Amino acid sequence: MPEGPEIRRAADTLEAAIKGKPLTNVWFAFDRLKPFESQLTGQTVTEMETRGKALLTHFSDGLTLYSHNQLYGVWRVVERGETPHTTRVLRVKLQTVDKTILLYSASDIEMLTPEQLATHPFLQRVGPDVLDPRLTPEAVRLRLLSPRFRNRQFSGLLLDQAFLAGLGNYLRVEILWQVGITGQHKARDLSETQLAALSHALLDIPR
Q: What is the pLDDT of residues 1-21, one digit of tens each?
């Protein structure tokens, strides 16, 4: 399963293809999203934001498309008019004058107003994103030592998206190896030197 860096790289590719260009064709597979097709035509994608493994496509009219790839979802960028040969099921198409981005196989897709975005259950649950440049090692250190997380083993904590979003199996292994601690350790057991090293590694390695 992809982790935060893979989702961010995908978002960067999608942004490079269509950001700021008026949408000439919008298509959704799900009936509940059909009313937004005409509304979004002529709008632009202003940003593609990642929250862990969720992707938020922000449009110029204030709406946001929430999508979570889960196990099988995948985005593709193609030239306008091109139809990829695939057995995957198309869910979303956003087309501009020269490029089209396509979302296949994902089922967790919603259109959100700003108010809905602020109260979305998954987004409320996840912690700060490790790829958010505003997140600092000191903020991570304080999170590690908080009552909610300080007594948990790193084997489980570093996979919990409520702690930090965007981490997963291979990143957990790399981070613990870099710092020289095991999955059985807990934040309460670490020295100040180890805490500082872990707080930096939790951001530096994914980034």
A: 557 778 888 899 999 999 999
